[in-house]
Amino acid sequence: MIGLAQVYVVAGLAFTAFAALSLTDASNPKRLINGAFWGLLALSMLAGDQLGDLGNGVLVLALVALAALGLGKGSGGASEAERAGAAAHHGNRLFLLALVIPATALAGTFLFKLAPALVDPKQVTLVSLTLGVLLALACGMAVLRAAPLVPLQEGRRLMDTVGWAGILPQMLASLGAVFALAGVGDVVGKLMAGVIPQGSLFAAVLAYGLGMALFTMVMGNAFAAFPVMAAAIGLPLLIHQYHGDPAIVAAIGMLAGFCGTLMTPMAANFNIVPAALLDLPDRNAVVKAQVPTALPLLAVNIMLIYWLAFP
Amino acid sequence: MTLWVLSGLAVMVFGFVLRFNPLVVILAAALASGLSAGLQLVEIVAAFGKAFNNTRYVSVIWIVLPVIGLLERRGLQERAKALISGLKGATTGRLLLGYLLFRQLTSALGLTSIAGPAQTVRPLVAPMAVAASGSDDPAEQNRIKALSAATDNVGLFFGEDIFIAIGSILLMKGFMDQQGIQLSPFDLSVWAIPTAIFAFAIHGFRLWRLDRKEAGQ
User: Fold this and answer.
1) Does a structural domain hold residue B60?
2) Is residue B23 domain-shared with residue B48, that is, in the same domain?
3) Which of A31, A63, A302, B147 has the greatest number of beta carbons closer than 10 A?
4) In terms of pLDDT, which residue wins out, B123 or B85?
């Protein structure tokens, strides 16, 4: 059955290529650090299950040490004139090629669900994405007449743009696991439950909505905030004491948390990685672009819970 | 259980405010909270390593870079700009409004991974939005690029919860199940619709105002 294991092999080979091309990149003064960083990530993808928990922990320590030393950026890529010339030559075929990944993801999501013996039903999305990438590479090299090294070298160049921020989301997810082990959520929940004035429904709703957004901002993830806030305020006060509709309290409470996700650098994959990928000089530029939408929407969510959940 | 367990949160906040390398800050936060909770150093490193290994799927997205890089080298961004420049009436606001609607609707159908910062925003949406503005001021161009990424996030976040099999819906159902409250995924997903409409209205209003501002210049 095709599942995560095969996806990790493809990812491991991609990172191996990034590492090898970084090591031989004469334009990058820190090529050894880049090579080691992506090499370790390749090792994690290819052999993480064989390393053991402590071995993986030491691998993380090494990744962080390399990031602290600082990764470099190599040059490369085509000049603007060259790209404009290629664009005129290839025309709208470029859009068709760009659509191969989304189209494969779309088709795979539906088709693989029909073949649960072939593809792990829980990993349909990742398998489809990986398949889309391989298909797009094959089509791209054929249609655009590119040697196999060209896409890998261009991938290495973009990976340099992203740098260590590329593993920030994975690191934050791992931190969430350690926080859970240490019981951080329980303590925050007890503190929150203690500060709400008794007898005011609106104060309870406000504390629930704001708490969801704020705790999401600290943790970078509404999934981490939901069980804490629901257990501290949503369930005992809003649902049991004030008889709120549990579906509305939960669903819109989660969306209040999503407003927090829009406002925090801790949600690295949504906010910091795109800034790196778009080569923006301000790391927080995407967060700043989102706050004017997130704040009014948070207020709307709090009012929606207040109006809809308590008939 | 002591309040010292929260020291990890303080490390995160101060580390980010003081702009230390975030990877170092994350590790320091794990150590602070872990040690406060009475865990051994080796235990914390092992727990972190185990979680890192279990969440590798998060970093798989980077395999799209060779495809995006190849298409960019062959002029995808330039082609996207040319297409928009040739369209009459294409403005940054209208373009991003259309993308917002597309992203919300496809996410509501569960198709969350057909678009994203690496798949669509960098190669297509951001260059098109910049081209539609006609601005050659780098600061303004960067603002429009950031707004393109922001529009992608808003569309994703306030569309995906309408789909019944998305992670957050299953998390809520699982949590309520454990508390003895039976909810169907449909009960939860239907209540994501009011917020989705408001999200479109609020972000759409900002995009409309952006067009007004650009037209006034």
Assistant:
1) no
2) yes
3) B147
4) B123
Residue A309 has pLDDT above 90, yes or no: yes
| Residue A88 in tokens | 């005129």
Reference B51, options A62, A44, A271, A46; nearest CA is A44
Angle between helix A184-194 and A222-229 (nearest 10): 50
Whether residue B93 is found in the same domain as residue B153 = yes
Residues A274 and A277: their CA atoms lie apart, in Å, by 5
- Write out residues 68-87 of A within 8 Å (CB-CB) of B: 68, 77-78, 80, 83-87
pLDDT of residue B112 exceeding 80? no
Residues of chain A contacting residue B147, judged by C-beta atoms under 8 Å apart: 289
- The verdict on B40 and B133 lying in the same domain is no
Q: How far is A252 from chain B (nearest CA, A)?
A: 6
The CA distance from A41 to the nearest CA of chain B, in Å, is: 9
Residue A63: predicted pLDDT:
97
Give pTM, 2 decimals: 0.84
Alpha-carbon dihedral B13, B19, B22, B23, rounded to 10 degrees: -120
- The answer, for B28 touching chain A at a CB cutoff of 8 Å, is no
Contact across the interface for A85 and B27, Cβ inside 8 Å: no
**Structural domains in chain B (count):** 2
Residue B33: domain span: 3-54
Q: Name the residue among B52, B59, B112 with its Cβ closest to that of A56.
A: B52
* C-alpha to C-alpha distance for A8 and A130, rounded to whole angstroms: 10
pLDDT of residue A139: 93
pLDDT in tens, A226-249: 888 888 889 888 999 999 999 999
Mean pLDDT in residue range A144-149: 88
